[in-house]
Amino acid sequence: MAHTVFLVEDDQGLREELGTLLTRYGYAWTTTDDYEDVAGQVLASGAHLVLLDLNLPRYDGYHVCRELRRRSDVPIIVVTSRAAELDELMSMNLGADDFLTKPYHTQILLARITRLLQRAYPSAPNPTLSAKGITLDLGRSVVQAKGGEEELTRNEARLLQVMLKNPGRIVTRSELMDALWQSDEFVDDNTLTVNVARLRRKLERLGCVGVLTVRRGQGYQL
Amino acid sequence: MSWGRFCRDRLPQLLGTALGTGFAAALAAVLGAPAGAVAFLCLVLLVCGLGPLAAEYLRRRAFYRQVDEVLEHLGEKYLLPELLERPGFLEGALFCDALAVTAKAMNDAVAEARRDMGEYREFIEAWVHEVKLPIASARLALENRPGPLSARLEEDLFQIDRYVEQALYYARSGAVDRDYLVRAMPVRDAAADTVKQYARPLIEAGFRIDLSGLDAVVYSDKKWVQFILGQLVSNAMKYRGDRPPTLAFVQRLEEQSVVLTVEDNGVGIPAADLPRVWDKGFTGANGRRLSTRSTGLGLYLCKKLCTQLGLGLEIASREGEGTQVSIIFPRGRFHLAGEC
Question: Which of A19, B128, B166, B257 has CA atoms 20 to 30 A from the CA of B331?
Answer without folding.
Answer: B166
